[in-house]
UniProtKB/TrEMBL annotation, chains A, B:
<keyword id="KW-0456">Lyase</keyword>
<dbReference type="GO" id="GO:0008867">
    <property type="term" value="F:galactarate dehydratase activity"/>
</dbReference>
<dbReference type="Pfam" id="PF04295">
    <property type="entry name" value="GD_AH_second"/>
</dbReference>
<feature type="domain" description="SAF">
    <location>
        <begin position="5"/>
        <end position="80"/>
    </location>
</feature>
<comment type="similarity">
    <text>Belongs to the UxaA family.</text>
</comment>
<dbReference type="InterPro" id="IPR044144">
    <property type="entry name" value="SAF_UxaA/GarD"/>
</dbReference>
<dbReference type="InterPro" id="IPR052172">
    <property type="entry name" value="UxaA_altronate/galactarate_dh"/>
</dbReference>
<dbReference type="InterPro" id="IPR013974">
    <property type="entry name" value="SAF"/>
</dbReference>
<dbReference type="InterPro" id="IPR048332">
    <property type="entry name" value="GD_AH_C"/>
</dbReference>
<protein>
    <recommendedName>
        <fullName>Galactarate dehydratase</fullName>
        <ecNumber>4.2.1.42</ecNumber>
    </recommendedName>
</protein>
<dbReference type="InterPro" id="IPR017654">
    <property type="entry name" value="GarD-like"/>
</dbReference>
<dbReference type="Pfam" id="PF20629">
    <property type="entry name" value="GD_AH_C"/>
</dbReference>
<dbReference type="InterPro" id="IPR007392">
    <property type="entry name" value="GD_AH_second"/>
</dbReference>
Amino acid sequence: MHPADHVAIVANDGGLPAGTVLPAGMPGAGLILLDAVPQGHKVALCDLPAGAEVRRYNVPIGTARTAIQAGRWVHEKLLDMPGARALTGLPMATQPAPVAAALTGRTFMGFRNADGSVGTRNLLAITATVQCVAGVVAQAVRRIERELLPQFPNVDGVVGLEHSYGCGVAIDAPDAIIPIRTLRHISLNPNFGCEVLVVSLGCEKLQPSRLLPPGSFPIRDGRSAEDGPDTVCLQDAAHIGFMSMLDDIVERARPVLARLNARRREPVPVSELVVGVQCGGSDAFSGVTANPAVGHAADLLVRAGATVMFSENTEVRDAVEQLTSRAASVAVAEAIVRELGWYDRYLERGRVDRSANTTPGNKAGGLSNIVEKAMGSIIKSGSSAISHVLAPGEKLRRDQRGLVFAATPASDFICGTLQLAAGMNLHVFTTGRGTPYGLAECPVIKVATRSELARRWHDLMDLNAGRIADGEQTIEQAGEALFELMLAVASGERTWAEQHQLHNALVLFNPAPVT
Amino acid sequence: MHPADHVAIVANDGGLPAGTVLPAGMPGAGLILLDAVPQGHKVALCDLPAGAEVRRYNVPIGTARTAIQAGRWVHEKLLDMPGARALTGLPMATQPAPVAAALTGRTFMGFRNADGSVGTRNLLAITATVQCVAGVVAQAVRRIERELLPQFPNVDGVVGLEHSYGCGVAIDAPDAIIPIRTLRHISLNPNFGCEVLVVSLGCEKLQPSRLLPPGSFPIRDGRSAEDGPDTVCLQDAAHIGFMSMLDDIVERARPVLARLNARRREPVPVSELVVGVQCGGSDAFSGVTANPAVGHAADLLVRAGATVMFSENTEVRDAVEQLTSRAASVAVAEAIVRELGWYDRYLERGRVDRSANTTPGNKAGGLSNIVEKAMGSIIKSGSSAISHVLAPGEKLRRDQRGLVFAATPASDFICGTLQLAAGMNLHVFTTGRGTPYGLAECPVIKVATRSELARRWHDLMDLNAGRIADGEQTIEQAGEALFELMLAVASGERTWAEQHQLHNALVLFNPAPVT
Ligand SMILES: [Ca+2]
Ligand SMILES: [Ca+2]
Ligand SMILES: [Ca+2]
Ligand SMILES: [Ca+2]
Ligand SMILES: [Ca+2]
């Protein structure tokens, strides 16, 4: 905690009863608790008059609704939330972090791709242009798994990129570009080896040539770019009956699998990692254990020349001043303001604001409101200068390295889908309440904020950052352990979600209406 | 076609070449084609000066952009679309159809439910409160299928009700009630036997008690309504590890399966059918073969006391005058205006209008614009008076029978999902271009508009309405054949989509923003 904070967090399993005397050597030492305080919740360290600012992380997380005595439980009903910081008059690139010493020599075992990117997995992806084909693609995936995969042991799996996009989406609406480019860029994720195999219906609005126009991806099989992507079109006159559709997809998959199967992992520098960080099911420990450990690992990655994406617009909105000041240039700061401003207006159209983000689980876990949640969330980004900004669904260029703000909703699945589209080859997800999150497209390392969760979900949590709260590890040590785990997983070690085959859906961000 | 129409449709496979003389006994007999006209496309029957109204279905489908000679191909580039009819000054309940003679004595073999509804399938459904649990539910479904289903042979299957809803949806936004009530009502679909089994994460915004509050469903297993639905909560402290979560879901499913397995099909009157009709991948034949056949079958169902839902707001918008005049009462007409007006404003917020509905496939199939598409689409509703209107996600009451306008987007998956929520136990889907649509929750009868498609997709199309265009069947005969097929499928005969296990996703209509 920061020395100027008015509150401290109760770390003990089960919380602390009223009457407890806070122990020596800790913030508030000697203070007597006037209320029972649940684990992860806040206790007032000093008397706070009604209307006073209440600071945590050295920022005001609210004002006291009534007078709060030292030793009281400071829960969300005692605080009024501050208004959102205006997006004008912000400090623009005033405090970009100095470039830290390069971290050299570390490698992982990855799959090099034709476009220069590197995969951490070797997957056959089947792109669907439209939800109409999802049932057929799912059956084709089952047949490929059963009949073909055993012949291609170097291929890690086959993934049908199912999504809900259909002709219902108003394709010419101003915002419809977001789901379209998201689908395009997911097909080009580094874990799919630059191989594109499309299943199309035939009459859909989002035709294969619109989804993947010439030049959007490298052609690997000698065809001309103008032919568009390798596509099985179900409405093709050549398809007589359902089985001929399935047979066609299976046969078209065979040469792609053969090319993927010929690849081998090789040592590549850490700079080829593209790590998306996210938190979900957050509690008050997220901001003091798991997220700071992720932040430290993010700094190590950036020092090694890798790319780290952080996201979740509503969870950075209240930290906008930190973000714009940390931008590497005024142009980057302006891009941050542009993305967050666009999102403010998007929420306004639906008559909500950023406060719609917090959940009952957040509050039960001790997070009073979105300001406090945001301060804990943004710690995942570490301390590097912010070097680039991506709009939703955009893909990183090869020269966009370092710490990147990829503007996305905070929804775990929408954020993960957009980070996949951006080119993520490794996902790190912190959780306090616990979630069995996993993706078929990319390994997800799950980091628990508390030891109790890590013990209970022993075969779902890949790392326990609760050891920081237990005093067993420093933030730096937990961050280094996470960095080492990232290299191992990137090299092929399977996460718990992979072992159990836990796959969440791709969920598109579609701000456009459906017809 | 209507005698006042200015255009006729070329029915022939492969279309007709320029120079063809239209045969005797047909509209435009003796006319020489000045262009090649593709199958399903329109030919001008008379000279149309620039700016003239062009009528089909006896309504203006547009105005001639330039002078069009008799015999020319009338494609979408030659027509300007008329503006949308204002929602004021409409004829309100001026022409409700007279009540037709009751059709009595017909039954099907269905599963009677505790709430009075009737299932056409006997399915175990597992409700998910949030996308977070989807990976775990999918693994549980696989184990239940493998380990339990063989012991319960009267149960047709187990369905995980996966959806994309998550904490990202702004739950207090004015429109967020739509996805919430949709999920609630899908769990209560008649094909799930009034059994509710919920898998919850624990920290989600949409808590089980908010999704399924006391009174929203009948309790079957002796628990008190205040306990809420039978729920496996993954974050329960009792769950030590992933396997204990799976074991818990599997064990909780066992008594539900036993209750479902004890049920038997019994003869029930046709009045217990709740049929949702929809079209997708439409062509110019949709409005002259499949949709009129569905309309005739809809009239038979209504005469038998059953419920028929038609939907697809953007595809009825241009027929609003027909709808309000056919309403059974002024209140029903006002509800139609309310729903279509709400939808107009929803589209406006996203800066599109109803014309965003048409697809390249529609146009290639001969549908020039949404007006022409709408006139062909609405024929599915038959000729009965419209007796009720449902807002998106609402569930039919037991006393809401007859022809119902269930207001939904036209997107096949969103419309199907909302019709499931409304209580659909049988789905009829017409297609011209062809789509392999299917749902895990409800049988889908697919009706082809053309014989060529029915021949090519012989094991995907359940009925060929193309026989009408071929002169082999009248609309009435095709409608009667569809009516008989509906009774057979409702009684357990499996559709092609069921035989191939083709399952499209549930797609929620969420007009609220995501955070
Ligand atoms: Ca988060
Ligand atoms: Ca998140
Ligand atoms: Ca339609
Ligand atoms: Ca439709
Ligand atoms: Ca799915």
